[in-house]
Amino acid sequence: MRNIKLLVKFCLKHKLLFALCTLTNLLKAGVSVSLAVLLGSIIDIFTSGDFSGLNSYLLICALFIVLVVIIYWLDMLVSTTYTQKTICCIRDQLFNAIIKKDIIDFQRMHSGQYLSILNNDINIIKQDFIDASFCLIFQLLYFIISVILLCTISPFIVVLIIGLSILGFIITAALANNADRKKEQFSHQLEHLSRITMEFFTGFTVIKNFNIIDKIESVFKKNGHKLEKSRKDCNMMIGYVNSLAVVMSIGVFLIVLVVCVKMISSQSLSVGAALVIMQLTNAVSEPITQVLSIFSQMKSVQKISKKINAILTTDARPEGNILTKSIKKNVQFKDVSFSYGPEDLPSLKNINLTFEKGKKYVVIGESGSGKSTLARLLMRYYDNYSGKILIDNVSINEVSSDCFYSLFSMIEPNVFIFNESLKENLCLFNRFKPEKIHEVIDKTRLHNLVNMLPRGLDTVVGEKGSTLSGGECQRVALGRALLKDSQVLILDEFNSNLDNETSVGIEQSMLNLDGITVITITHKIIPSILSQYDEIIVMHKGRVAETGDFASLIAQKGYFYSMYHMQQEDVVFPKSLVSSPHLAPAL
Question: How far, rounded to the nearest angstrom, does the alpha carbon of residue 355 sit from its chain's CA centroid?
């Protein structure tokens, strides 16, 4: 029930519109009952042979038609406005909750699942909860007004209709649980197909390059058929329930018809009154026979509501409240150890490092040595580490997110590019002075690209930067960080997609940045560049193996020295040969 209460809370967000929708449903129920009374009165006029009041009734009928048109138009206006605002409210709150998640928390669900919730599941909520709610409200109001009117005509008929309808309710209840299960299975299949479809589109180039189109088509076809079979089973079961409800309604109608004919023949009921009873029979019987179907329909969104509730109520990482505007001294790692999971081996072990403000650092090590993990901890991707990471002796977790992410920027190997102009991808929808943008373009060597594009900075670069090369995407990412005026710039294998000339040129620009702490993570050992760094941090199996400048590390003839010579000789460096942080120079 807690999950359904969440949807009820959303539905009551716009109380005035909800009240107006209830009012228009009341008016619709009122005019429906009034129509039956009006027609019954006209029939009685014809059967009695007294036509003196016919013209008045015909005029009332004309006015009644106008009133019905107005009421139904108002109901459409109010209900569509209410539904629009409610759905927007649910979708907006969901999106805000998703986009504010921590990176690690966000990655616990597949992006296809988020997409399915924001589109498919919200559409189901609209159809099976909001629309069904107002259908239920209308049926109940129609039922109450009809029962009150029928009681004035024949209480016996009311008892008969209600009794037969309750019997139908008990019979249809047997199929309701099966309908719930079928609907839940359909929702699961819909989410699964959305997820794998998004994966296939994301991995389109891999599918083409490895020529696995047939296999992907087979997987998609198989899951698509499962979805449609699930949809068919769901619709069939709902159809069974609805068909049984219709059969029961017809049965009630026929029994009431026979009773009314007998009462007319015994002159205890007029023909007009009988017509009113017959027209309002469904108004009494349908709410009873269909209420279970409607409740089942509304209950079927419970699983969806549970997913929404989980997203909205996930305990977020406690937000820091220290407003650190700048780094005055340093950033420190103190006895930091970390593993990705309780079953995993430690990725970092007893890391103690100090990054002084404005100095330039490079972190080097073989694949799996913990270089990127070090950067991700510094960027607050994870907080389940032991030890401390400090900014001027203040834990990074105590610094507010706004302040923290204004101080730090990280450029990763895979750069996301929006399907927007080059300018928007650089500025990330912020506004900067033109001279600052052009200064950054020069520093990141993007001027050739800008000159080549048909509309310069205003050229749309395509989905995921389809018109840009990998190196150009990484230069755009560098430009973003420089425009933001980050005080700590982390370059995680930023030069993996760059040729050596461009890589050296951009890295040289980064080394010339005054007052900015640069932490470069790389596997490339280029002496002319490395010699300009204030400190080289050598990682090995999650530990800091060596630290020092280029000259001192070469002079030590330790682990870094061995890595350097292996790269110079263009030899693959086997893991078996790097088990010791102090390999012999002969290696």
Answer: 37
Coarse DSSP helix, strand, coil percentages of the chain, rounded to the nearest 5 percent: 65, 10, 25
The runs of H, that is alpha helices, within 154-270 are 155-202, 204-209, 213-265
Instruction: Name the residue type at position 164.
Output: L
Q: Residue 127 CA to chain centroid, in angstroms?
A: 19
- For 283-321, the pLDDT digits (tens) are 787 777 667 667 767 776 777 888 888 788 765 566 667
- Count how many domains the chain has: 2
CATH of the domain at 483: 3.40.50.300
Alpha helices in 397-515 (DSSP H): 401-407, 422-427, 434-443, 447-452, 470-483, 500-511
216 and 177 co-located in one domain: yes
368: left (phi over 0), alpha (psi -120 to 50) or beta: left
285 and 374 both lie in a single domain: no
What's CA 464's distance to the chain center, in Å?
19
Judge contact between 432 and 509, C-beta under 8 A. Answer: no
pLDDT at 1: 54
Distance CA 505, CA 325 (A): 30
